[in-house]
Each structure stands twice: as structure tokens, then as C-alpha cells.
């Protein structure tokens, strides 16, 4: 049977785009397209600008950077910056029903390396799929213990997935892939305590760039122990070796793109806010509800959500993306959540601050000791004594809605509006959605770098 590492590397080596099920290909195209939107949008973020400021620009090679076109920067740094951008606005995809943001880590790796090698579009996409399936199984083997211990599994599992994706594009042999995974294990880190801080985006940037470098080191002949992934790596992060072996054995038979599947996000904030937002929005549609008459708001959520987002009220617009009471108050006030909900103007909105003083936030007593995302319960009492209550769970319909092509296209165009004209954004969208029809990935680079100024107004 062999080791889990051997099974993983056999899968990565053998995977060919033409052999991937059509349903998986369709999911991969959509998630790739959505991640490109997040990279482009993230080019205007504080995190991207700050990271860009510390990157040494004295390099001869040129790469596409988020929203910037071609810039003088090396491959490693371009991957780091684009991954930071992809995660900077909390708008990037995640595994449905469990923590982990795969595409923000992997797409910058396969794009950057693919551009450098002038690789075929199909080889880029099959490397993306391979990396995501590997990241998914490592992520699942780490949960729930790694999350409870305070680690950010997007970063911890992501560096392994990135090494697998990069190793495939570099055509590493079986033993080279095994070395790449082991080297990646020594680079893994990321702390949940950084949720809501600008360093959160660096988790993703570091995972992408370190995974790429692990594969490059393996290609250069660096070697380590061959069983770090299933051995000391899992031990450090509280993972299950037995589960890893079972999952590795199912690679190519079950696909993470389909189960648990991926959620393309409709709100630019941490997913742990989503059920509370949905419950609050349900309340705004109830007869008799009036924001101006709110006397008290109670936000009750699962232990998992509360552990991830313990802050009662944010002190920065970015931290607001990680704050359930804030998102509930904003949803009750506006009747929606969008990018403008996380601005300095909204953070200091007088009506919003009045609601803040009337909020109670806690774990739902009915969910203590329960695993998983669970549900969120919002209770609003008005000055008349009228009571409104709504409960929201993660729902299959929500995942289906987010796969709707009209939704994805609108999100893409909105994300690109700051840097591309609508015509150019539409062109980039069309190319991304048919990425496997390109002969070489450099054709996408040409489309991305024909910047047309957005229409005024």
C-alpha cells in the first residue's frame, strides 16, 4: 500500500486535465475566476500596499501584480503579493462547512510559476486541482484540533498544497515531490490570533511563497526526512495520521471540489459572520421591524464561531470583517452587507454606534460542546416590546446560489471596477471562465495587462 506521502505524490504526478471529471473542471474554472477577481480587488487593499512597500523591487524579471499590470519583481515575491491580495478583503473562497481558504494560496502559485515557464493553460489548471485536493486532505486531517490549538489551517495546510502544485508544474519526480512536501512541512505556520489584523493576509502570502520555494529547493536537491507530513508535522498540529492515510487513499476517487465543495463568498468578511448576517437580514424583512426602535440585540453563535471571532467591537475597518456584533448591526441598519460596510465612514456611523451599546454577544447555550460551524441566533427587541428572532445555518442552497454564473460575473465585474473598464473586466472574466481553452497561460497575462481605465462616475 505504501505511505500517505507516496499515495499523495502518485496522485499529483499522474493527474492530467483531460482525465479530471467535468464537474470538477467546472468548479475549478469558477473558483479560479473568483480568485482572479479577489486578487485584482485586493490590489487596492492596505495589506497589499504595505507588503508591496517592503518588497525589494531591484529584480530584472516582470510579473503581473494585483491590479497593477506588469511590475519589476521576482517570482517568489509576486506570488507572495498576489496571495496577500487574494485574501486581503476576506472575499476569497473556502471549503464548505469547514475552515480553510484554498484558492487564495494556490492560484497565485500556479499563475506565477506558469507565467515564468510559459506553461500550457491545462498544466496550470491540473496543478491547481492537484494542489487543492492535497491541501483539502491535509486540512481535513488537521481539523478540528489544529483550529482549537490556535493555528490557521489555511496557512498550515496551504503551504503543503502549494508545494504539491508547484512541484507538479516543475515536473518533479515522485521522490522530488516527497521532498517538496517534507520541506513545506518545515515552513508551515499561521496563528488564528492574527484574525482581524493585517498579518492575516501574510499567512496566505507566506504559505503560497513558501510552498513554491519548498518545491524549488526540492528541485535543487535539498532533502529531508520523507515522512514529515504523516509524522512530526501532524503531531505538531494535532492532526490524525489515520485520517490522513484514509484520505490519501481516496485521492482521485473523491474530489474536494465536490465534497465538501467550495463556497464562493457573497460577503467580503470572515465566513464565521455569515449565519449571523443572514439571520439579521431575515429580521429586517419581518413586518414591524424598525432599526430606529431597537432596544436590545442578542447575538448567539456556535463555540467555533465565537472562538474564531471573540472581539465584541472592531477598532479598524479591517477588523470589522471579523466581528459578528458589528456585522449584525450593519446588516440591521443597511439591509445588506457589501464592501462599503467595512469603511471608516461606516465604522463611525452614529446610528451604528447606538446599536453597539444595545448588543449582547455570547455562545448559544444550546451549542456548547458542539463541533463544526453550527448556527447563529439573532434576537431583536424593540422599545414597544415587540420581539424578532431568526436562526441561520450553513445551507446547501447557499452554496448553490454562490455557484450561479450571474452572481459570479457580477462579483467579478464589481471587484475589477477600480482598475479595469467594464469592457476589459468582461474580457478578463470570459478568458478566466474558459481558461483551459487557452494554449498557453501567457495569453491570460496579455489580457490582464491591457489595462483600460475604468469609466468615470
UniProtKB/TrEMBL annotation:
Residues 6-231 form the MmgE/PrpD N-terminal domain. SUPFAM superfamilies: 2-methylcitrate dehydratase PrpD (SSF103378). InterPro entries: MmgE/PrpD_sf (IPR036148), MmgE/PrpD_sf_1 (IPR042183), MmgE/PrpD_sf_2 (IPR042188), MmgE_PrpD (IPR005656), MmgE_PrpD_C (IPR045337), MmgE_PrpD_N (IPR045336). Transmembrane segments: none annotated. One of its GO terms (molecular function) is lyase activity. It comes from the Bacteria. Pfam families: MmgE_PrpD_C, MmgE_PrpD_N. Residues 267-432 form the MmgE/PrpD C-terminal domain. Belongs to the PrpD family. This is MmgE/PrpD family protein. The lineage of its organism: Bacteria, Bacillati, Bacillota, Clostridia, Eubacteriales.
Amino acid at each position: 500500500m505504501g505511505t500517505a506521502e507516496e499515495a499523495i505524490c502518485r496522485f499529483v504526478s499522474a493527474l492530467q486535465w483531460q482525465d479530471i471529471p467535468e464537474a470538477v473542471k467546472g468548479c475549478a474554472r469558477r473558483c479560479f475566476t473568483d480568485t482572479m477577481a479577489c486578487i485584482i480587488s485586493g490590489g487596492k487593499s492596505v495589506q497589499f500596499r504595505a507588503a508591496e512597500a517592503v518588497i525589494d523591487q531591484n529584480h530584472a524579471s516582470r510579473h503581473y501584480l494585483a491590479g497593477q499590470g506588469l511590475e519589476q519583481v521576482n517570482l517568489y515575491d509576486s506570488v507572495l503579493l498576489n496571495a496577500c491580495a487574494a485574501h486581503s478583503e476576506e472575499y476569497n473562497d473556502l471549503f464548505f462547512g469547514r475552515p480553510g481558504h484554498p484558492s487564495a494560496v494556490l492560484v497565485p502559485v500556479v499563475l506565477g510559476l506558469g507565467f515564468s515557464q510559459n506553461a500550457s493553460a491545462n498544466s496550470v489548471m491540473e496543478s491547481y486541482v492537484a494542489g487543492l485536493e492535497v491541501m483539502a486532505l491535509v486540512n481535513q486531517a488537521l481539523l478540528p484540533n489544529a483550529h482549537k490549538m490556535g493555528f490557521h489551517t489555511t496557512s498550515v495546510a496551504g503551504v503543503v498544497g502549494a508545494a504539491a502544485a508547484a512541484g507538479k508544474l516543475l515536473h518533479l519526480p515522485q521522490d522530488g515531490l516527497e521532498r517538496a512536501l517534507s520541506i513545506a512541512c518545515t515552513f508551515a505556520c499561521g496563528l488564528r490570533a492574527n484574525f482581524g489584523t493585517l498579518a492575516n493576509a501574510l499567512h496566505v502570502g507566506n504559505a503560497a511563497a513558501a510552498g513554491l520555494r519548498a518545491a524549488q529547493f526540492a528541485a535543487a536537491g535539498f532533502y529531508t526526512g520523507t515522512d514529515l507530513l504523516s509524522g512530526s508535522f501532524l503531531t505538531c498540529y494535532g492532526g490524525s495520521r489515520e485520517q490522513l492515510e484514509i484520505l490519501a487513499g481516496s485521492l482521485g476517487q473523491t474530489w474536494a471540489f465536490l465534497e465538501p465543495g467550495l463556497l464562493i463568498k457573497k460577503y467580503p468578511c470572515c465566513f464565521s459572520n455569515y449565519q449571523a448576517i443572514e439571520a439579521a437580514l431575515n429580521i429586517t424583512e419581518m413586518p414591524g421591524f424598525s432599526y430606529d426602535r431597537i432596544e436590545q440585540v442578542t447575538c448567539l453563535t456556535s463555540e467555533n464561531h465565537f472562538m474564531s471571532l471573540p472581539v465584541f467591537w472592531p477598532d479598524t475597518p479591517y477588523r470589522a470583517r471579523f466581528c459578528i456584533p458589528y456585522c449584525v448591526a450593519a446588516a440591521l441598519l443597511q439591509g445588506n452587507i457589501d464592501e462599503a460596510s467595512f469603511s471608516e465612514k461606516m465604522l463611525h456611523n452614529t446610528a451604528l454606534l447606538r446599536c453597539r451599546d444595545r448588543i449582547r454577544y455570547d455562545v448559544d447555550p444550546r451549542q456548547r460542546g458542539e463541533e463544526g460551524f453550527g448556527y447563529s441566533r439573532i434576537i431583536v427587541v424593540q422599545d414597544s416590546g415587540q420581539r424578532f428572532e431568526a436562526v441561520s445555518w450553513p445551507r446547501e442552497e447557499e452554496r448553490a446560489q454562490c455557484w450561479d454564473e450571474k452572481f459570479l460575473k457580477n462579483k467579478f465585474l464589481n471587484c475589477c471596477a477600480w482598475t479595469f473598464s467594464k469592457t476589459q473586466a468582461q474580457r478578463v472574466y470570459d478568458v478566466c471562465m474558459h481558461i483551459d481553452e487557452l494554449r498557453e497561460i501567457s495569453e491570460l497575462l496579455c489580457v490582464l495587462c491591457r489595462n483600460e481605465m475604468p469609466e468615470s462616475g
